[in-house]
Amino acid sequence: MGIVRTLARWLLGAVLTFAGVGHLSFARQSFVAQVPQWLPLPVDLVVVASGVVEILLGLSLILLARYRVAVGWIVAAFFVAVFPGNIEQFVRGTDAFGLDSDLARGVRLVFQPLLVVWALWSTGAWRAWRTSRRRSSSTESGLGAT
Q1: Do residues 96 and 84 lie in contact, with contact meaning Cβ atoms separated by under 8 Å?
Q2: For residue 69, what pLDDT is reported?
Q3: CA 145 to chain centre
Q4: CA–CA distance from 80 to each of 40, 109, 115 (Å)?
């Protein structure tokens, strides 16, 4: 794993850890504003639980290099799972995190998939998946047999 990918993984881990701490403290109300109204759970439970998950994922990205590929897939899935909150903020027009216009909230929607790509690229998860698919294709076609 190259130094650029490692630094990108650590940076993403730091960002997630910081955001998780924000869930539990200084940015709590902003995160409350993103919880979809249709979610059948107490809003505060969702904010606290997602904050704890973000802290754990962030620390995992930094500390569990051996499991970085699996962690990368989990982080990517987390980003997909919280995307409805970003959509909810856009649809309701809720001001939070300095996003006080439809344009700003819309731009944020575009960047969420980039977080998924960042998680998969920086952990080598995407590369590992492509490599396993190539091996699988070679074996199935008989090219891998000796």
Answers
A1: no
A2: 97
A3: 38
A4: 19, 11, 9
